Amino acid sequence: VDLKEENRRLQKEVDVLRGRIVGLQEQRQANLRLLRLLHFATDRPFPYLGAQVISRNPAPWYQSLVIDRGTSDGLAVGMPVVSERGVVGRVVEVSSSYAKVLLLTDYSSSIPAMIQKNRLEGVLSGRSNDTLSLKYVEKTDDVASGDVVVTSGGDGVFPKGLPLGTISRVEKPGHDLHLVIDVMPMARFEHLEEVLVILTKPHPFVSQRVNPEGSGGDAG
After folding, report:
1. Do 194 and 53 touch, CB atoms closer than 8 A?
2. DSSP 56
3. Which residues are bridge partners to 66 per DSSP?
């Protein structure tokens, strides 16, 4: 009887210790992610605000997520959102305590961009999948797989030089003046848990869409 009781007690202690180990591992992973975000922020002279991802929109035709910051934290529509790898998207809707972020991959996403090595400019558009499209780059321009694409800063929203993606395919169609360019985004959207919001003042042409708390409140 004593042996059985001792085994039960030891098993409970093992279960408690396993729970603590899992908690410590989670804390370690979170610290590593936050450290990478900090390194990204310190390399760029912008004011930032950290935020946690609290939900994602599962619909394939609308790529977005919701973060736990809002107007009470100084957020406004149009503010860029980044991860430690690069651009995530921009704030498109905001309430006092949360904000909706339109992802780079959404069909309606469009960002002025340029190829880092030669400063050729185009427009990076979403496809609602794992790839992006860099448009309006002429067929005679020097573009190759592996070239890095960054923000050009021409939209009054995203600061110049933020990482967007890497060119994965270049095609020269015979019927068009422009190249067909596929771009793999730098950010890994399916793994996002924390992000940084760049607290830049939105350009005057960026409309403010503000929801009162509790109105239109589905976080997806």
Report:
1. yes
2. E
3. 55, 100
Query: CA torsion sign, 213 to 216 to 217 to 220?
Result: negative
Comparing CA positions, the residue from 108, 85, 115 lying closest to residue 193 is 85
Q: How confident is the model at residue 215 (pLDDT cuts 50, 70, 90)?
A: very low
**17: which DSSP letter?**
H
- Average per-residue pLDDT in the chain? 82
Q: Whole-angstrom Cα distance, residue 18 to residue 184?
A: 39
Question: Distance (Å, rounded) from C-alpha 167 to C-alpha 120?
Answer: 13
Checking 37-40 for CB contacts under 8 A at 24+ apart, the result is 37/83, 37/84, 37/194, 37/195, 37/196, 39/84, 40/82, 40/83, 40/84, 40/196
19-47 tens-digit pLDDT: 777 776 766 666 666 666 666 666 667 78
The alpha carbon of 90 is separated from its chain's Cα centroid by a whole number of angstroms, namely 8
User: Which residues fall within 8 angstroms of residue 31, CB to CB, at 6 or more apart?
Assistant: none
pLDDT of residue 7: 82
DSSP-H helix ranges across the chain: 2-42
Specify the DSSP class assigned to residue 199: -
**What count of Cα atoms within 13 Å lies in the side-chain half-sphere of residue 165?**
27
Beta bridge partners of 198: 48
> Model pTM greater than 0.85?
no
